[in-house]
Write a structure and sequence with these properties.
Layout (H helix, E strand, L loop, with lengths): L7 H7 L4 H20 L4 H18 L11 H19 L7 H15 L4 H22 L5 H12 L4 H8 L3 H19 L14
Helix pairs in contact: 1-2, 2-3, 3-4, 4-5, 5-6, 6-9, 7-8, 7-9, 8-9
């Protein structure tokens, strides 16, 4: 199979030492950092904890079984994050104030519950963030007119006929532009974000 036809996640599994791993790390690092802040991790400790999470992902990714389950990767990543946060707060000299400790543990328990409001927030923030980052990643692969047509129709909700007129393109060219970008985006996002995600632009 052509390597470029694979999702980012599958390219990493086939070539774990490739530049694709760097792309995944760059993709997820800001999101993981933001969640570490939610659990009272100081900036001075965030780098080490972030590296622990990424190393755990790298170590076990080959054995991770997505099996077509919606949200499987984000749930797996969340479990790794929760585990590392629990270990972090249990480590000597890294425990929060007594009053805050129970609050952190309570929040972790809530995040662990797949049906909790906090888990729903995690799912929503994960999908929205990853899709926005993937949009930025795929943009350089398309001509300016193609990207503009896609963006205005798929993301801004404009009528294809109006966009075609504004860009001096045929209606078919606008429809094809939207389809091409969505196809590439779905390819990159496969395994990371479900194609049924509410954040995916409709076909």
């Amino acid at each position: 199979m052509d390597e470029t036809s694979l999702s980012l996640l599958n390219r990493i599994r086939r070539s774990p030492d490739s530049e694709n791993w760097d792309r995944l790390a760059q993709l997820y690092s800001p999101l993981i950092r933001s969640w570490l802040r939610n659990y009272e991790v100081r900036a001075s400790d965030a780098d080490d904890l972030l590296q622990e999470v990424l190393m755990a992902v790298a170590k076990d990714l080959e054995e991770f079984d997505h099996n077509g389950r919606t949200g499987a990767f984000r749930a797996w990543l969340k479990a790794i994050l929760i585990n590392r946060l629990r270990n972090f707060w249990r480590a000597r000299d890294r425990r929060p104030q007594a009053a805050g400790e129970s609050s952190v543990e309570q929040k972790l328990a809530e995040l662990e519950d797949p049906n909790s409001e906090l888990s729903l927030v995690w799912n929503r923030e994960h999908d929205e963030y990853v899709l926005q980052q993937l949009l930025a990643m795929v943009r350089p692969h398309f001509a300016a007119n193609t990207w503009t047509a896609f963006h205005r129709v798929a993301l801004e909700g404009e009528r294809p006929r109006d966009v075609a007129s504004d860009l001096n393109l045929s209606l078919n060219a606008v429809v094809v532009a939207k389809s091409r970008v969505l196809s590439r985006l779905r390819q990159e996002a496969d395994g990371l974000v479900a194609s049924t995600s509410s954040f995916f632009p409709e076909r």
